[in-house]
Amino acid sequence: DVKVTQSSRYLVKRTGEKVFLECVQDMDHENMFWYRQDPGLGLRLIYFSYDVKMKEKGDIPEGYSVSREKKERFSLILESASTNQTSMYLCASSYGFAGAAGEKLFFGSGTQLSVL
Amino acid sequence: ILNVEQSPQSLHVQEGDSTNFTCSFPSSNFYALHWYRWETAKSPEALFVMTLNGDEKKKGRISATLNTKEGYSYLYIKGSQPEDSATYLCAFCSSNTGKLIFGQGTTLQVKP
Predict the structure, then answer these.
(1) Are the CB atoms for A18 and A80 separated by under 8 Å?
(2) Left (φ > 0), alpha (ψ -120 to 50) or beta: where does B29 sit?
(3) A31 near A49, Cβ under 8 Å?
(4) Residue numbers in A near B91 (CB within 8 A)
(5) At CB < 8 Å, which residues of chain A contact B?
(6) Is B49 close to A102, i.e. CB distance below 8 A?
(7) For A102-113, how does the pLDDT look when each residue is reduced to its tens digit (9 = 90+)?
(8) Where are the alpha helices (DSSP H) in B8-97?
(9) Within 10 Å of residue A105's Cβ, how many Cβ atoms?
(10) Per-residue pLDDT tens for B54-98?
(11) A42:B99 CB<8 A
(12) What mean pLDDT value characterizes chain B?
């Protein structure tokens, strides 16, 4: 079974702190994604990566950066956490181009981040 | 801005009831439509990936249909069980952007 592992289930941080959210997948997937989920809104894409050291902005990249030094690991970085970044963060991966026939996303179980 | 709408937002049914919900998406530049089930404290899991107009997919008691010309997909659950309680997400992939746009989800609660 494909496994996408996020390092923390719950995280509490203070405003201004630098925050790292880690995601590891074990199926040699090319593509990795970071989404956030807020009540009443759909999953929104923050950043994605199609290859090692490659990154693309999603729909809401402001206040975030990412790192992909190895194929299996994709990190989301909040440079200076703010209260409006309190959210559920989901990491996902896929082998091919997500949207191509059969190329579903595999998700981690999420990190609930609270910024106080 | 591409919009994906799901209705209803939430649904409460009794065990054994059949139910359905809707995902509406842009009818132009269609590439694929995904359905995911997200149970509390678990990872979202893919149910279906649909690419052709008129597609019908089935997995046990759950099935889905797709109409790309009018921009909607239905998800049906026959004889709902408590373990079907979850949030159901649909996601539209545009051929323009190649990115998935998610709806806000339909939360289903099945009472024993």
Answers:
(1) yes
(2) left
(3) yes
(4) 42-43
(5) 4, 35, 40-45, 48, 58-59, 90, 97-110
(6) yes
(7) 689 999 999 999
(8) none
(9) 27
(10) 999 999 999 999 999 999 999 999 999 999 999 999 999 988 877
(11) no
(12) 94
Q: Report the pLDDT value the prediction gives residue A53, as an integer from 0 to 100.
A: 85
Instruction: Calculate the dihedral angle through the C-alpha atoms of A33, A109, B75, A39, rounding to the nearest 10 degrees.
Output: -80
Cis peptide before B82 (omega within 30 of 0): no
pLDDT value of residue A101: 57
Residue B1 is predicted with a pLDDT of 58
Query: Are A105 and B36 an interchain contact pair (Cβ–Cβ within 8 Å)?
Result: yes
pLDDT < 70 stretches in chain A: 1-2, 97-102
In B, minimum Cα distance to A6 occurs at: B43
Within 8 A of B89 by CB-CB distance, chain A residues are 42-43
Which CA distances in Å does A94 have to A40, B10, B49? 26, 29, 13
Q: How far is CA A93 from CA A76, A80, B71, B76, B107, in A?
A: 14, 26, 26, 27, 24
**B104 and A99 in contact by Cβ < 8 A?**
no
Eight-state DSSP code of residue A98 = B
